[in-house]
Amino acid sequence: MFKGILIQKDEAGYRSSLAELDDAALGDGDVTVRVAYSTLNYKDGLAITGKGPVVRRFPMIPGIDMAGTVEHSNHPEYRPGDAVLLNGWGVGEVHPGGLAQRIRLKGDWLVPQPSAFSARQSMAIGTAGYTAMLCVLALERFGVTPDHGEILVTGANGGVGSVAVAVLAKLGFTVVASTGRVDEADYLKSLGAAEIIDRAQFSEPGRPLGKERWAGAVDSVGSHTLANVCATTRYCGVVTACGLAQGMDLPATVAPFILRGVTLAGIDSVMCPRPQRLVAWERLAADLDVAKLDLITHEIGLGEVIDAAGRLIEGKIRGRVVVDVNR
To answer: How far apart (Å, rounded) are the C-alpha atoms in residues 20 and 6?
Structure first.
């Protein structure tokens, strides 16, 4: 038996609980892992609260991230005792996830634990940080460099935003952080933000084109925010889009793209090919100041997850939430 968060949907309704589970709750796979830490991401919050259609099979153990130690393996790359981590691949959506003390899954989905990070630190980064690095890699791939100008990070107090600010600042970019919690300015400046601006200037319908400012952007918000970011991006600037905290819609025009040559780069962390994941984690080991993780992160136990999920969706949690699944 092991403990885990369980989401159920039946005639009694949609509900999440901390449950005692057995191996029948584990999915198919060739590797079984004893989980040490997981995380609470925005997608996990949507799944646990039922605020979004994340879970597609019931019952379901949520949790799109985990770090732990291999217990059993029929996969050629992994042996018992190996330290591994997981991000995405539909885990916590269609396959039992990481918010439990054990998980069984395909070894092809795993990444070896980078030696630069402990299991806890790798979950302090988690999908949010790995996604932030995919955004940084996309900016670099399209040729954006620090001398091109300011980089905007929206949703800066969240997990993706916090890591993006820290990494971009360390790489020498001038980072402007957009947030609805401007009282968190000291926190964002400690991560490396040069300026803090209120998200309100982006969150309402705007003009097709605004005054050019951003050389690049990392957007985890979507909707009017993403439209307004594109409209105010400089000629040949690059906007990376990786989230939908404000909404899935994009009420924009083609003007920024055909009149200013702006590039809108979509970032998918769920099904991202393994070689790109390995590069992202290698770069995180090189370009993320581990000392900043303590500023970004706070830890909870498995029994606190359901309450924290509600607060996360309400925007009351900043940075990253690490879950010690064994307390």
So the answer is: 9
What would the pLDDT profile of 172-219 be if each residue is shown by its tens digit? Answer: 999 999 999 888 899 999 999 999 999 999 999 999 999 999 999 999
For CA atoms 236, 289, 129, 31, give the dihedral sign.
positive
User: CA distances (Å), 326 to each of 11, 156, 175, 314, 321, in order?
Assistant: 31, 30, 37, 26, 15
What CATH number does domain 2-113+292-324 carry, 3.50.50.60, 3.90.1310.10, 1.10.101.10, 3.90.180.10?
3.90.180.10
User: Is 127-266 in CATH node 3.10.20.740?
Assistant: no
Q: Return d(Cα 311, Cα 39) in angstroms, integer.
A: 14
Upstream peptide bond of 80 is cis (omega within 30 degrees of 0): no
Q: What is the largest CA-CA distance in the chain?
A: 60
Cα(193)–Cα(152) distance, rounded to whole angstroms? 10
pTM of the model: 0.92
Q: Are 287 and 130 in contact (CB under 8 A)?
A: no
